[in-house]
């Protein structure tokens, strides 16, 4: 496992992040405490140091399990959680990105995680009703209090993140160091605006669902599997075609489809850190194997051709008109 700094901070984070959304058996299929302990130990033994959870994962059980498993070794990890999702559906102020929910959510998470600070605190999703100025100032206050070291934002438009970080720069507040978004061969939407924005701001990109909800794991292209989460009939022909392309590359390289899919997300940009979420030690071990997979350029091209992804306007238009706009300089400028 190698490390990069989190955004424009000095905090070292591992190539793969471990998602704890599967920690706990509440609300569906998940991992029991003993299996969570095995997963966490194996991840740590491989050199992984980033643990990602949220106040609402497994009804709070994910944070509680992490708090129990980190006793005596909490400071060896980069511990991250999120707020935004409601703490009480009957309370109008139970959710959102406003100062009141931030304060109450932060205290709840710190108590469950049995720690006095978070290494990274993520805004979970954009809240249209809260001024971004309020959110950024409240987050900066949390940093200044020592309860939060760094901040990030998940599932928000590029213009919101850009505005927030520009405000932080102008006003001397803490800026977002990370962006958390879905990214896989089945969902390349972030290549349009979010990924270029993150690269321009020097942000780390934590990629969730890098296996496309398991479609790219090989479960739907390699015969029957008792651990399928989706009804095969619900998967589009396009997604199955991409999954078959991943399976073909995996067969050619002698690795697993999951390893190919994870390796591809890392090829696209050095800013990207896939979040792996395992329900068993075997799944995690397989995912960690992606670090050793090298994808030749021709195989990357084959995978991307299968996605039929189009960036759309304005990206495609700018590319098409570049020779007309810049003349000979279009090809002569590095």
Automatic annotation (TrEMBL):
SUPFAM superfamilies: NAD(P)-linked oxidoreductase
Keywords: Oxidoreductase
Transmembrane segments: none
Oxidoreductase in keyword set: yes
Protein name stated in the entry: Aldo/keto reductase
Single GO cellular component term: cytosol
InterPro entries in the cross-refs: AKR_Detox_Biosynth, NAD(P)_OxRdtase_dom_sf, NADP_OxRdtase_dom
GO molecular function annotations of the record: oxidoreductase activity
The NADP-dependent oxidoreductase domain, residue ranges: 16-306
Database matches in PANTHER family: NAD(P)-LINKED OXIDOREDUCTASE SUPERFAMILY PROTEIN (PTHR43364:SF4), NADH-SPECIFIC METHYLGLYOXAL REDUCTASE-RELATED (PTHR43364)
């Amino acid at each position: 496992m190698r490390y990069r700094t989190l955004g424009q901070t000095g905090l070292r984070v591992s190539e793969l992040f471990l998602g704890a959304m599967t920690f706990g058996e509440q609300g569906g299929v998940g991992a029991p405490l003993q299996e969570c302990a095995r997963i966490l130990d194996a991840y740590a033994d491989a050199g992984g140091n980033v643990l990602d959870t949220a106040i609402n994962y497994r009804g709070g059980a994910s944070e509680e399990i992490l708090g129990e498993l980190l006793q005596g070794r909490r400071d060896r990890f980069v511990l991250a959680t999120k707020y935004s999702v409601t703490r009480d559906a009957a309370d109008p102020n139970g959710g959102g990105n406003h100062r009141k929910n931030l304060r109450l959510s932060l205290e709840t998470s710190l108590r469950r995680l049995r720690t006095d600070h978070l290494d990274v605190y993520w805004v979970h999703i954009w809240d249209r009703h809260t001024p971004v100025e309020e959110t950024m100032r409240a987050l900066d206050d949390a940093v200044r209090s020592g309860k939060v070291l760094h901040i990030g934002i998940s599932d928000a438009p590029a213009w919101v993140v850009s505005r927030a970080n520009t405000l932080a720069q102008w006003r001397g507040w803490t800026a977002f160091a990370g962006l958390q978004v879905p990214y896989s061969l089945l969902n390349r939407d972030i290549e349009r605006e979010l990924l270029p924005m993150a690269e321009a701001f020097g942000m780390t990109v934590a990629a969730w669902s890098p296996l496309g909800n398991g479609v790219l794991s090989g479960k739907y292209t390699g015969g029957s599997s008792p651990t399928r989460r989706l009804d095969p009939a619900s998967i589009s022909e396009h997604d199955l075609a991409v999954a078959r392309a991943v399976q073909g590359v995996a067969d050619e390289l002698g690795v697993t489809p999951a390893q190919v899919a994870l390796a591809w997300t890392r090829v696209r940009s050095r800013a990207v850190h896939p979040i792996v979420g395992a329900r068993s030690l075997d799944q995690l071990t397989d995912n960690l194997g992606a670090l050793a997979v090298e994808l030749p350029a021709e195989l990357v091209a084959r995978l991307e051709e299968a996605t039929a992804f189009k960036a759309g306007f304005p990206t495609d238009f700018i590319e098409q008109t570049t020779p007309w706009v810049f003349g000979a300089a279009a090809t002569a400028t590095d």
